[in-house]
Write a structure and sequence with these properties.
This protein is an alpha+beta fold and 300 residues long. The protein is built from nine helices and 20 strands.
Length: 300
């Protein structure tokens, strides 16, 4: 194993210098030297990861933070031979739950040392702001409005509970708008769309029965509900693990999703705000290698 670099986001919801220090200590007991690089602004993790991958000095580039930090690090190293390591320090840590990555620093360090990895196929968002990679999921509509309205300070303080506060606020403030969704160029109508690579949502809640991380496609969940009461029932069904049984939702498989609407519908990916529609989503042409256990995690 070559050296490893740990890219950490000091503003992540549960950033912890002590956890990072323990992780480094156990990692270096097996030999590999670890360099720590701290992000200073949005997008900095991508630059740090790109430079680290280009140097050829590191076998692993480790993202220490939440899903947003992981996506930024992945964007800088995708398509290279470097392996993405994950030390979960965020509020939801959905990808870590999805890929069964240990939260314990000692077991996580042992996983990195073993050198095993799983190959996944992330997605890209294409908006007016440009192309942005996401590793777990993106959404357009009510779900994204919740993310747009979530206070970063409150999220750092109370973690996932901040999303509950924003959900209640969004139920009163957000106006549901029906729009056209082109799924593999076939038109559908919806008020919210979740485009997911994984099977989980907001941590450990089941969104679909199948993870598409190893596939070159998405799971696309269409919310066709138009009233606030129906929307509340749909949200509750999601957190009760019954979204697949809920009337007014459909799950499809696709390799491209396009929402041409110019109506400024909010977008989020991996828990971060990503502007407004129109938007086009597709699968990365290059895979990403992620440090996991010796065998891939079971789908769903």
């Amino acid at each position: 194993m070559k050296k490893v670099i740990i890219i950490t986001n000091p503003t992540a919801g549960h950033h912890s210098r002590s956890r990072i220090s323990r992780f480094v200590r156990h990692l270096e007991q097996a030999g590999p030297r670890a360099t720590i690089a701290r992000t200073q602004y949005p997008g900095h993790a991508t630059i740090l990861a790109r430079d680290a991958a280009a140097s050829g000095l590191y076998s692993h580039i480790i993202a220490a933070g939440g899903d947003g930090t992981i996506a930024e690090v992945a964007a800088g190293m995708i398509g290279t031979s470097a392996i993405l390591g994950i030390l979960p320090l965020g509020s939801a840590n959905v990808l870590a739950h999805e890929l069964k990555i240990p939260f314990n620093e000692i077991r996580n360090a042992a996983l990195i040392q073993a050198g095993h990895f799983t190959t996944i196929w992330p997605g890209y968002l294409h908006t007016k702001a440009g192309r942005q990679l996401f590793v777990q999921m993106a959404s357009i509509g009510f779900d994204a409005h919740i993310v747009h309205g979530t206070s970063t300070r409150l999220k750092a303080w109370v973690g996932r509970a901040a999303y509950a506060v924003s959900t209640l606020s969004s139920l009163f403030r957000f106006e549901l708008t029906e729009f056209t969704v082109l799924i593999d160029d076939i038109p559908h109508r919806a008020t919210t769309v979740i485009v997911s690579k994984g099977s989980l949502y907001a941590g450990k809640y089941e969104l679909t029965h199948h993870s598409a991380h190893g596939d070159r496609n998405f799971s696309v969940i269409l919310f066709e509900t138009s009233g606030k009461l129906a929307l509340v029932r749909t949200i509750l069904s999601l957190f009760l693990g019954r979204i697949g049984q809920q009337k007014g939702t459909r799950t499809l498989t696709a390799s491209t999703v396009r929402i041409p609407s110019p109506a400024a519908i909010p977008i989020q990916s991996d828990g971060d705000r990503k502007g407004f529609s129109p938007v086009h989503l597709d699968i990365s042409a290059s895979p990403l290698h992620v440090a996991t256990g010796p065998t891939p995690p079971p789908a769903g």
